[in-house]
Amino acid sequence: MPASPTPWGDRLLPRHPVTRDIARQLYERVAGAPIISPHGHVPARLLADDEPFTDPASLFVSADHYVTRQLHASGVRLDALSVAHGADPREVWRTLAGHAHVLAGTASAFWLRDELASVFGIEDELTPGNADEVFDRISALLRQPDYRPRSLLRRFGIRVLATTDDPLDPLAAHRVLADSTTLTERVLPTLRADAYIDPAAANFPLNAEKLLSAVGAAATFGGYLGALKDRRAYFIERGAFSVDVGVTDPATAELTAAEAESLFQHALAGTLSPAQQRLFRAHMLLQLAAMSVEDGLVLTIHAGVYRNHSASTLDQFGPDTGHDIPVSTGFTRELKPLLDRFGLEPNLHLILFTVDETAYSRELAPLAGFYPTVYIGAPWWFLDAPDAILRWRSAITETAGFYRTSGFIDDTRALLSIPARHDVSRRTDAAFLARYVAAGRMPLAMAERIISDLVDAIPAAAFKL
Amino acid sequence: MPASPTPWGDRLLPRHPVTRDIARQLYERVAGAPIISPHGHVPARLLADDEPFTDPASLFVSADHYVTRQLHASGVRLDALSVAHGADPREVWRTLAGHAHVLAGTASAFWLRDELASVFGIEDELTPGNADEVFDRISALLRQPDYRPRSLLRRFGIRVLATTDDPLDPLAAHRVLADSTTLTERVLPTLRADAYIDPAAANFPLNAEKLLSAVGAAATFGGYLGALKDRRAYFIERGAFSVDVGVTDPATAELTAAEAESLFQHALAGTLSPAQQRLFRAHMLLQLAAMSVEDGLVLTIHAGVYRNHSASTLDQFGPDTGHDIPVSTGFTRELKPLLDRFGLEPNLHLILFTVDETAYSRELAPLAGFYPTVYIGAPWWFLDAPDAILRWRSAITETAGFYRTSGFIDDTRALLSIPARHDVSRRTDAAFLARYVAAGRMPLAMAERIISDLVDAIPAAAFKL
Amino acid sequence: MPASPTPWGDRLLPRHPVTRDIARQLYERVAGAPIISPHGHVPARLLADDEPFTDPASLFVSADHYVTRQLHASGVRLDALSVAHGADPREVWRTLAGHAHVLAGTASAFWLRDELASVFGIEDELTPGNADEVFDRISALLRQPDYRPRSLLRRFGIRVLATTDDPLDPLAAHRVLADSTTLTERVLPTLRADAYIDPAAANFPLNAEKLLSAVGAAATFGGYLGALKDRRAYFIERGAFSVDVGVTDPATAELTAAEAESLFQHALAGTLSPAQQRLFRAHMLLQLAAMSVEDGLVLTIHAGVYRNHSASTLDQFGPDTGHDIPVSTGFTRELKPLLDRFGLEPNLHLILFTVDETAYSRELAPLAGFYPTVYIGAPWWFLDAPDAILRWRSAITETAGFYRTSGFIDDTRALLSIPARHDVSRRTDAAFLARYVAAGRMPLAMAERIISDLVDAIPAAAFKL
Fold first, then answer.
1. Which of C22, C372, C442 faces A105 most closely, judged by CB atoms?
2. What is the pLDDT of residue A1?
3. Which of A361, B132, B281, B438 could form a disulfide with A395 if both were Cys (CB 3.0 to 4.6 A apart)?
4. Residues of chain A positioned with their CB less than 8 A from the CB of C352
5. Does the reported pTM lie above 0.90?
């Protein structure tokens, strides 16, 4: 038996020769297609400054909480993985190489392998034996101009890259990028509304006051909505096409003006009960949809995550350090107030992301299979991985087809992982479609249309690009 | 690579040659077997009148909310798909042909392809280019006597067809069919109890009053139960073998006579709180089981659907227009009161349907793997599709085997889709069994017994046919 | 087509030749490896006494509620399956043989086939035709010394076998086994805490009083915790390495000393409300973790089962008679109080078992992918079967890899089924890994390391062996 039974070029494609041939043929149609990344977390500043990456450890470990959380689970302290906390980059890199078995089988391991090969030309598996040599090779390359962020953006073929930004962000980095005479790729802001709709979020009163004062609005609920609209307009002027919000559950509610005003004043005062906080947030989510009906911004909802689960880790290392843990999530009852108001509005696009797979066939596909406003978000966070993507397609396609989905979303802070992530999606979609073609469930010509639309027409339609 | 890698005759069968051979051999044992359809929604009137179908659009689009919901989700207005609302049939048909990519991969697309080929001899994919020609060919055939409902019933080999009927329906159409000297197929009524057990249903007081007056019963809870028993007896005389009920959740409860009486009077007056409505419904569900213990009617429960989710669509187009959306559903706690009373009663058959896949391995298979009264309903509604059926078999078989299931249920209003739906079930079951045989998990002879029992002995046992 | 398309030796391995070759090669590395069974229910007394098994029916049917529940679901009365209730062993055996179709496809059928072949050399399928002959052959073998429990333990290669024991058990049988000069296998106790942490459990006040008096502790909450610690120390002296607890839901909570004392006194008096019972249990679960941080015992949690669902069956036949039915289970919110206190403690190992598959990718893998204390328990109870094991691996691996799992757990009372169960796990893991290797997702050398670690280093690490 060969040591490597599958050529790297055929990775993730199905084994049966007929199915593999179909999958390969489909994949090749989109393998080199430009990347549309309509939602993610690469900082605009990274591209505006265009400074070289400092070292392999910062790039592949410290800045990637997908990786650090797994090493942490294996007993490595988080500060020992953080160059910012004083860890030595070479030691961090050796730690990574010594934990290949821990990462084996995870999405992170697969992306890492792809990034080393595709971006740095390193075909060997990373091992303790070659860790230092690989570290040095990457370090040398990172000093080359070709490995600066903007060069990589171009090399990766990323045509549209959306960032995620605070509503009060002046978007100065985006301005630098828009004014660039050499950058043809579009780097566009996304307004992230979380901190301004959830009274249970840290510092809500402070955030709300800042928002009100930023636009000189009166401290009334009407003034608050006006301030949000004002910031949305500011973002739209700078190219934004969507508003994103993360909520523990996607409850929506419609309050009377008096109720909303009263809750808002208590929210400013920090005197809401948990149930009232939830109700206010639910009303705000409905208000965001109302604003989208007006100004056309796509509304993306990331629901069902208990953020910063480990209190002591949050205290010591801050948010986004690998312990956002999903919870059971429903949409059918939760979104009914919103959908009764706006579910048939042509101007609203609502893209729903979940980390609870049970909602795929039970709620998301049926909702998106009726409401023209509802799109099924691509597999998110822990579910952005080959098996999970195939489960997602299997769960939604028979009810909602392919055209009610968002297209692939990388949702990443890690610029270097963007091509690897999109490639996984393209390969698994090719494998999925090939299975349908091979089972006589779809003509090949239709699969060819769909595989192309999935990387272009489908995200363009969902995100109004 | 061939454009059509799988002969249409091998559709849905597995790819590996050994497994495919086994699957094909199993499938051929049942491919032409008669169809038992013990639960569905074809109107008895359609067969009693035996009028020709009017046109292809009414047949394949307007009357099929599986199709209209998907076109609606793509932005087509529902009235533009409804011949009854004045839409031109040929235009509706062209709309269908123009949305093949939207339907691609869904169960509806697969059934449509099968129906066109098997019923009308149209082998080509429907496209905008051939839409008019196909429309004309089907229209011409529909005028032939062979394409009238009763002829199709015979041609399809449907031996038993259950309809779904209001308890107060006089069953006149069933009488016409029973009295027919030429119709040998049995078309039998099913009593649908929803509107008479749930005080939250539209017009419950009115419905209850009608039921009471229909049998001249006193307006007491005892009188009400008696009236229901009376109608069950009426249905049994006309060949009914089951009672069906749809509930948002399958809660059951046992009340004292005084509690039940009090809730009933408030239900008649329309003065129950939501919690009391749920409690009364839970008690009624237990009462339905009690009646089944007495009269032997199989009790089928379709649980966990939020009916008519879009309020404005309900207002404009009525119920059953494609926006019944599932919610998370439990059975273990919910059914305990009922099962503690009747779970071991030999005369009770309780068939449980869900649209929440999570209940398969967690609750349904364990319950049916212990209680002789409990049967696992076939995949229902959105889950009646090839991948979903395989997920269902995988989730339940290792715990409950094959003999605790209902047999396939088409649950459809669309007479023409019945053979296609049963064929999908037979093919996927053959594929599933072939996988077990090929993995050494089951002798071939056992798989041969099971594939035959699945279309005959198993539904006959579950539904007491 | 051959009647038996797969040699028995290749059972459960994948079909495609390349993938099968890899899987076979991986499987062969561990096919004969010693068995570590760190959690199960074989009675220590069985091995201490080492008496011959009495008859095939008691061995394979009466004592195995996996089998009896399925026969019961098919309409066989439980007492007709129970030799202890006077059923004739030969008749029970004939009943089993007559229900092969009922069991077909279930895990029990597969284990039975393997046990008959591997332990008794019976290669034929059990049928009504050969039932008597097989009964006689097994009966004859059971009288041989080689078929006594200790001989089988050795023949099976079981190096470590953990039992499950009441905290007040004097562990006399374990002492006999430890003192044996011929038994080299380790049979070690596990403290099962359920009855002493849940005031809703039958006889809690009585159990608590017994525990207090067993160690002469004062009837205070502090005294109670001290008594538990005392018994843990007793178990540790006798080789215990873990404490097990089964809970309907894994809620945890931290109370003040005064609150805990008050709830404890009411628990002793039997005067807690259901909500207070749950709160006390939640606090006790957190206290068990606190004790594990001190004394190092691994804490295993089996969550989400409604025990003894059928009240009348419980009355007549007692617990563990096949009607423990799962319910929806969450961990993220439930364990937060515990994990905020102890989630980063190096001395705590917390192994989480569930029968709700939805928690795999949603909660267990994300928790185990961050907290070094959290391990994902192997598929439990209904989910200990080939398809279910593959679903489990698929759901967890992309997020948490292989090294955050417990290793395989047979969790069985049936000594004879232990090798069959571990073999299924080894085969399905080989199949899973082979799929990843064949898809280019993992080097073969890594898969070779992992398949070996899964039967040795991984359970040894999780259970601190």
1. C442
2. 43
3. A361
4. none
5. yes
